[in-house]
């Protein structure tokens, strides 16, 4: 993107996400939110006691879980989304530098080189995608109890429970980091971020 | 800035080359999930032992929130459940009987009490070992009501307004089926189905209806709440619902 001469550089905006990408994030976040909320009401005794309605909660949880991968699958039709998947997949030497700095709690921008996505975002994207599919598979094994041998169902419950706890913690980290960075949230909300922010947080990104 | 970054051809973005580590993390997570399912039985046993021990020393009760943390889980199918106490609670026995009865808690307490210590096994997998239940044998209440010859089954209703359960007459007459007033040597609390619940020791715990308010003798088994939603009517622990848990009674 070339800046127009009459635009002061401090307020310049660069496009970060397309409309399709923002809607994928919105719908996935909403479905994940429903999954987490219903799971909490099914699982945490105090909430279960407060809410009851177990049959309804189970149905809502099952269908929102089943729908969870749909926005991402649908977005594969979008060229911009596929391009970002490619960016999330590929790790360069700068990602190693970024991860090393993150491990040493080195917050200086110079030691955190990143292209459109930093190494932490890449790891999160790959892990949450895998974890969601594991939740879906183990969830289906618990839902359609006659499809798999009986021992599998107890094992699926075990994995589903512990992975749910892990996802809850990681998701809280994801939301916490977004809350700490208003410009990053603006990028996901409006699709655009300031040139300053992009240069500081994603110096290797060439929008 | 990192010198690694600018290696290679100038017009190539750093994000368009590199190792496909994202794909490896994604596939690795899937593989780990599958391995978790395979390794679950020993892992689960170990964790139950460890967390069970930790829960005994944990004043915060947070271990109870962890999976396999041990203890009971609260399940209710109704939106809210009214609270009943000794003053407001009544247990009705009716249907195909000569003498329909209304019991108060005091009247139930005045009858001979039976105490049993068995494991509780839920159909969703959790098990609570060695749990004492105490109450009146169901067979005693049925005998007191004098069944008509056409009686074949018993239907249970609950004051949550929604839940129902059922047993055949033979099952209902077993010595290990109680109308329970106490659990873990305490009066049954509301969240455990108090003041009075059913306790069917040899069956999965969904048969042990909480907040029991009605016992109706019928001429055939009418499937209960969860049974209309796919659970087995004859819910013997280890021999139903596709599960192979150790029997509880």
UniProtKB/TrEMBL annotation, chain A:
UniProt keyword terms in alphabetical order: Cell membrane, Membrane, Transmembrane, Transmembrane helix
- Top-level taxonomic group: Bacteria
Residue intervals passing through the bilayer: 23-48, 60-81, 123-142, 162-180
Keyword check for Nucleus, yes or no: no
The cross-references to InterPro entries, in alphabetical order and at most eight, read:
Cyt_b561_bac/Ni-Hgenase, Di-haem_cyt_TM, FDH_cytochrome_b556_subunit
UniProt cross-references to Pfam families, sorted A to Z: Ni_hydr_CYTB
Matching entries from SUPFAM superfamilies are given as: Transmembrane di-heme cytochromes
Q: Where is the Cytochrome b561 bacterial/Ni-hydrogenase domain?
A: 16-182
Q: Which residue spans adopt a coiled-coil conformation according to this UniProt entry?
A: none
Membrane topology term = Multi-pass membrane protein
Q: Where in the cell is it found?
A: Cell membrane
- Identify the PANTHER family for this entry: FORMATE DEHYDROGENASE GAMMA SUBUNIT, FORMATE DEHYDROGENASE, NITRATE-INDUCIBLE, CYTOCHROME B556 FDN SUBUNIT
Q: What is this protein called?
A: Formate dehydrogenase subunit gamma
TrEMBL record, chain B:
Residues of the region (Disordered) are 1-21
Enumerate the PANTHER family for this protein. Answer: OXIDOREDUCTASE MOLYBDOPTERIN-BINDING DOMAIN-CONTAINING PROTEIN (PTHR43032:SF4), PROTEIN-METHIONINE-SULFOXIDE REDUCTASE (PTHR43032)
Q: Can you give the residue ranges of the Oxidoreductase molybdopterin-binding domain?
A: 80-226
Basic and acidic residues bias spans? 1-18
Q: What is this protein called?
A: Oxidoreductase molybdopterin-binding domain-containing protein
InterPro entries recorded for this chain? OxRdtase_Mopterin-bd_dom, OxRdtase_Mopterin-bd_sf
């Amino acid at each position: 993107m070339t800046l127009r001469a009459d635009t002061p550089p401090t307020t310049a905006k660069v496009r970060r996400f397309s409309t399709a990408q923002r809607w994928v994030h919105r719908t996935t976040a909403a479905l994940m939110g429903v999954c987490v909320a219903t799971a909490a009401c099914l699982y945490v005794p105090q909430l279960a006691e407060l809410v009851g309605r177990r049959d309804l909660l189970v149905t809502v949880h099952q269908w929102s879980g089943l729908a969870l991968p749909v926005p991402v699958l649908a977005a594969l039709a979008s060229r911009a989304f596929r391009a970002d998947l490619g960016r999330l997949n590929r790790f360069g030497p700068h990602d190693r530098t970024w991860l090393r700095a993150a491990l040493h709690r080195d917050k200086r921008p110079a030691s955190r080189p990143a292209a459109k996505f930093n190494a932490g975002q890449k790891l999160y994207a790959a892990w949450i995608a895998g974890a969601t599919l594991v939740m879906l598979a183990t969830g289906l094994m618990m839902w359609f109890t006659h499809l798999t041998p009986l021992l599998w169902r107890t094992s699926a419950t075990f994995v589903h429970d512990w992975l749910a706890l892990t996802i809850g913690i990681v998701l809280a980290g994801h939301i916490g980091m977004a809350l700490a960075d208003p410009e990053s949230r603006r990028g996901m909300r409006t699709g655009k971020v300031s040139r300053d922010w992009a240069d500081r947080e994603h110096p290797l990104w060439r929008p | 800035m990192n010198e690694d970054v600018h290696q290679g051809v100038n017009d190539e973005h750093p994000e368009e080359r590199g190792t496909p580590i994202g794909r490896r993390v994604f596939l690795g997570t899937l593989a780990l999930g599958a391995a978790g399912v395979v390794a679950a039985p020993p892992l689960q046993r170990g964790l139950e032992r460890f967390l069970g021990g930790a829960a005994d020393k944990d004043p915060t009760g947070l271990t109870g929130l962890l999976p396999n943390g041990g203890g009971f889980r609260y399940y209710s199918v109704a939106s809210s459940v009214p609270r009943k106490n000794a003053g407001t609670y009544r247990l009705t026995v009716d249907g195909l009987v000569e003498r329909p009865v209304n019991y108060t808690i005091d009247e139930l307490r005045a009858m001979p009490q039976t105490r049993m210590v068995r494991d509780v096994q839920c159909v969703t997998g959790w098990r609570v070992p060695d749990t004492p239940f105490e109450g009146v044998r169901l067979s005693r209440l049925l005998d007191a009501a004098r069944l008509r010859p056409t009686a074949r089954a018993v239907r249970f209703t609950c004051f949550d307004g929604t839940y129902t359960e059922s047993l055949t007459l033979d099952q209902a007459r077993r010595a290990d089926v109680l109308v329970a007033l106490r659990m873990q040597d305490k009066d049954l609390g509301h969240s455990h189905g108090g003041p009075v619940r059913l306790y069917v020791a040899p069956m999965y715990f969904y048969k042990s209806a909480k907040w029991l308010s009605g016992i109706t003798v019928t001429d055939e088994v009418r499937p209960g709440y969860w049974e209309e939603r796919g659970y087995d009517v004859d819910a013997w622990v280890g021999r139903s619902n596709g599960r192979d848990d150790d029997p509880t009674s």
